[in-house]
Amino acid sequence: MISKFTKWGIATLALLVPSFSANAADIPAKGYYKGPPRSVVSYYNWTGAYVGISGGYMWGQTEFTNAAGANFNTSPKGWLVGGTLGYNWQTGAFVWGLEGDFSWVDLNGTDASIVCGATCNIKNTWLGTARGRLGYAFDRWLPYVTGGAAFGRVNLGNASGTVDETKTGWTAGVGVEYAFLGNWTTKLEYLHVDLGTATCDLSICTSTINAKYTADIVRAGINYKFSGPIFSRF
């Protein structure tokens, strides 16, 4: 038989339980702490078409050889200025692309030598290249290697006459480009150019003269890159 004290205890608990439940409902739930937002670094995107201008200094080596097999070397030098057109694709940190340029050249070399009869003359009036580029981007810095075809106008001869020839050869070099302001970049580049051999024959010169022409170029340039990949839909 249940005692009076037991009945009073049960009744008291019945009265207290709703009160505890109400107080528990009033306790605010502990919020989830997400921490501060992660910072996001925005890296430069090299993908896109670009145009630019460049200018620099050239120095060459020309080996003259006459019909008798005698040879003579001269060192022409001069300046060049021109325009550039290209397109880059970026995959991860690797940047690869195509670039073409055309420059007006004022490179001359004239030296006295019996190999050419009296004087040996060499002149380069314009130069163009069509090259591939491969670089590795460090955000806004892009060191690269480059190589491809070279085209140029060579004037060759001696005191008796000269001949103009458009020559095709090759070029290779290295460079570094820096994106300094929005879509503007600047570059410093070295190229070696080999335009092969030009010939001044007996119809113009008193002796058949062959001249193997090579040159080295150091130039600086500034480019404007158009925003976004124009070939993305393909």
Return Rg in Å. Answer: 38 Å
Unreliable stretches, pLDDT < 50, 5 or more residues? none
Mean of all residue-level pLDDT scores: 85
What shape does the CA trace take? Answer: elongated
First and last CA, distance: 91 Å
CATH topological fold name: Porin
Beta-strand portion reads: over 45%
- Compressed to H and E, one letter per element, the order equals HEEEEEEEEE
Indicate the CATH architecture: Beta Barrel
Report the biggest beta sheet as strand number plus sense, adding barrel if it closes: 8 strands, antiparallel, barrel
What's this entry about, in short?
This protein is mainly β and 234 residues long. It has one helix at 4-26, and strands at 48-66, 71-74, 77-91, 94-112, 119-136, 141-158, 161-181, 184-200, 209-225.
Describe this structure as you would to a colleague:
- By secondary structure, the protein is mainly β.
- The protein has one domain (48-225): Porin (Beta Barrel).
- Helix content is 10%, strand content 63%.
- It has one helix and nine strands.
- The chain has one helix spanning 4-26; strands at residues 48-66, 71-74, 77-91, 94-112, 119-136, 141-158, 161-181, 184-200, 209-225.
- Strands 1-3-4-5-6-7-8-9 form an eight-stranded antiparallel barrel.
- A hairpin with a 4-residue loop joins strand 5 and strand 6.
- The longest helix has 23 residues, at 4-26.
- It is elongated and about 60 Å long.
- The N and C termini lie far apart (91 Å).
Layout of helices and strands, plus pairs?
Blueprint: H1 4-26, E1 48-66, E2 71-74, E3 77-91, E4 94-112, E5 119-136, E6 141-158, E7 161-181, E8 184-200, E9 209-225
Antiparallel strand pairs: 1-2, 1-3, 1-9, 3-4, 4-5, 5-6, 6-7, 7-8, 8-9
